[in-house]
Amino acid sequence: MAIYHFSGQIMSRISKQTGNPKSPLACAAYRSGEKLVDEVDNKAFFYKREVAPVTHILAPSHAPDWVYDRQKLWNEVNRIEKNYNAQFAREFNVALPVELNKEQQEKLTLEFCQKAFVDRGMVADIAIHRDDKSNPHFHVMLTVRPFNEDGSWGVKAKREYKFDEQGNHILDKNGKKAFYKVETTDWNSKDVFNSWRKLWADTANQFLNENGISETISHLSNEDRGIEQMATIHEGYVARKMEKNGQESDRVSFNKQVKKYNKTISDLQKFKAKKKQLNYQNKFVRKFSPMEKKELSDIAKQLKMFVNVHSINERKQQLNDWKKSIQFTKDSDTKLRQLSRIEKEENLITTAEEIFNSESTRFIEKNYPAWDVNSLSLDEKVLIVEKTIDNNRLLTEDELDLIEEEVYSNNLLKEINGLLHNRYAFVLTINHRLESLVSARNDIEKKLGISNSAFESSLKRAALKNPKEFEMLKSVIKNTGELFKARDLMNEFYNLEIQKLYPAIDGNKLSLEEKEILIVGTEYYEQPITLESIPSLQRYGVYDQLKIINLLTSDDPLPLRNQKIEELYPTFQTNNPRYMMLFKDECLRNIHKLPDYAFDKLKEIDPEKLAENEISKSSLIKEMNMKMNEGIDNYSTSNSLSAIPTGITNGLLQGILEQRNFTSKQQFEDDLKNKSSKKKSIHRSGPSL
Length: 689
What we know:
By secondary structure, the protein is α+β, with helices and mostly antiparallel strands.
């Protein structure tokens, strides 16, 4: 992970460690990896490195050209800093974030050194070291003496003599004139040093963020940041090499002890955080009694499944279907055993529902005392409990009002899915299928001699004389009834969805297919559609469009093709012809941005063929597809911007939206306001929350 290390030192002619003279050329050679010669004694310095450092010299605009020659630069420094104890350079050692690549690290280093040092007038001799892959860092040696505007060396400090009240020089203990030392720069200031530390953290964090990395570093100490852990010290290349060679390093040993201590602190902090989280979450939790927990555990073991309201609802539906499938079979020991098992599981499910109902009732009575809990269904109670726990707060009135609609809509959809294999195909073919069934019924009734005037008697006579045909008639009547029921359920479901998404639209004015198109359009664009937004609607960018086009027209088998699309684009509805129609039309509007080879591929995308076979009975889908293919041909022939289609589905959506029963925009907006201000009160039994 990214670490913060920013250490500095002043380099003097006399080494603090050994007391021996030190050459700036030796220091620069060690960091840069170059061979440098000190002109004072003609001594050469060279330190071979396994990984060559990346070096740069940055300088202010008024510095002389020779500063960019490393050997010339530090020999000039050596010449100007004459005192035996002179300070010839300031150096910083800074750790680079390992999350950045080499190019990003180098750019970060140069940008920081320019802002921090060069813009203040210093020459920066930079060397990036990567001998240890886990410890990339850079050294920067800085001149301590400023340059004058003409490129000559300036002075580091000036003397301000001390005077007494009479204007005479004050003498020091040696009898010399006393003076104040006034530095010409602020480079030695503690505040400036701290500003450099902060600037490094800010600049590094900016680079990390720009490159999509969430890690950050801080110049503040652990104590200042409220962190109980101890800070490690910088080990350095030499210390780690000693450890690698089997020698003991005080720095590495110290860090090992610190890391051991910090792990203990970290574990303690995690425990505190977990405890705090649990205490917070316990504000809203399910609270089953010990007996209820035991009963639910026993039920789960007997049903061999995880038990919650959703799973027992699914199991109840499965048992119902199972019972229907065997109830008209011949009696046998197998049938009796199956019915016995079904009954046993139904009793277990009833017990589980009673437990969930009791627990949900207690929860609501405690947290929502103003609501009439007895008027709520089990599904509504459970949803209120789940949403409260998920949000870890009490729900607002608007959120509670929506729960009844959500439960009803979900149950309605379950019932629809129980009747239909594919609701998209059903919407397209409902009228055709009803016409076929009505026609088949008329033919059978005519053949059996069933008349409206003597319906019951002719029906009984037909059952006795032609039992096979009579069974066929019963089947047709049953299928017709189920189809009408499914259509009514579908209409009710879509009316609820349209009322929720488009409260000002009268769903009764739309056909079932128009409702389906409006709902799918909302799902496709992931937002409610307005007349104003239609011209600018777009779901996928050109890159994604091209990717999906290639997947849809690949040579892979259809199931594999759909699987690949769903892996990359989980919400893409490959089995929905209207969704495919909207996608193809969106690609058509962007056809001038697509490569030429995509034109023929786009024509291959056929909403009818990519969906179920019975979709071919939809004239609307067929007409839309033909128009889109014509648009592709027109553009590929003329290749003119004027031939770019404005959208085949745009007009369809516009026509649907314009069918609302409002005479003016103002009326439309007023009705929206009235809709949002209405509140349900059927479940309230007390004062308002």
